[in-house]
Amino acid sequence: MYPNHKRLVLASGNPGKLKELQNYLGPTGWRVEAKPTNLEPEETGATFAENARIKAQAVAAFLGKLTLADDSGLEVRSLESRPGVHSARYGPNDQGRINRLLAELENQTDRSARFVCALCIAGPDGSIWLETEGICEGEILTGPRGTGGFGYDPVFYLSELDKTFAQLSPQEKLQYSHRGKALSALKEQWELLFRSTPE
Ligand code: IMP
Predict the structure, then answer these.
(1) CATH topology of domain 7-193
(2) 94-136: per-residue pLDDT in tens?
């Protein structure tokens, strides 16, 4: 079945993520809508991929609509990959989460970290259509730099650009980020899957 309208429900309530997904998908012709705010599947998975699947399937099946879910977070090497799938729950708000992370890293010399983004598209019947993952390697600074982005962006540093994610333009962030990479892979897979199928 080829979806004859390029319409997607975004199964996320995080405004930062929604903005980035819309920035990417808008110019490619997709019309996106946010999921209802009270529809919040429990993220019980042990991995980003599992959680993305849980969210995409639950929202797609409930609404009967093509749905894209993003599950993402930060893995810090010297913290045995924490906060990981608990990134959103590591503190009461972005500032609290950053403070906790910096406190836990106070005596660590290895500050290397990576962002991971798992994307999943589920069809209107709740079946899994596509899954991709994107990774961005960097390090955690000792204090924030920059005002853009969201979440842990002000302390996530890319040495090749000498900038944090919070110092990048929205376009630059999509070019380098875990989410941008997962979205490019998703676009490629989508085109492969539907290229030869008549509309
Ligand atoms: P999720 O909604 O469970 O996937 O939560 C992901 C959490 O990881 C967010 O609340 C942020 O704290 C963090 N996160 C994911 N992607 C990014 C990003 O691109 N920049 C900064 N923080 C991010």
Answers:
(1) Maf protein (3.90.950)
(2) 999 999 999 999 999 999 999 999 999 999 999 999 999 999 9
Strand order in the sheet with 128-140: 31-34, 7-10, 67-76, 112-122, 128-140, 156-158, 163-164
CA-nearest residue for atom 9, ligand 1, is: 88
DSSP assignment of 2-35 equals: --SS-EEEE----HHHHHHHHHHHGGGT-EEEEP
Q: For residue 71, indicate whether it is catalytic.
A: yes
Whole-number Å distance, alpha carbon 3 to ligand 1 midpoint, is: 29
> pLDDT band for position 195 (50/70/90)?
confident
**Of residues 10, 132, 117, the one with CA closest to residue 59:** 10
Structure tokens at 54: 């849980």
Domain boundaries, the chain: 7-193
Give the separation between CA 121 and CA 132, rounded to whole angstroms.
Answer: 9
CA 55 to chain CA centroid, Å, is 12
Mutate to test the pocket of ligand 1, among 12, 14, 90, 141 (most ligand atoms within 8 A of CB): 14
pLDDT at 197: 44
Helix (H) or strand (E) holding 74: strand 67-76
Residues contacting ligand 1 via CB (< 6 Å): 14, 43, 71-74, 87-88, 97, 115, 149-153, 165, 177, 179
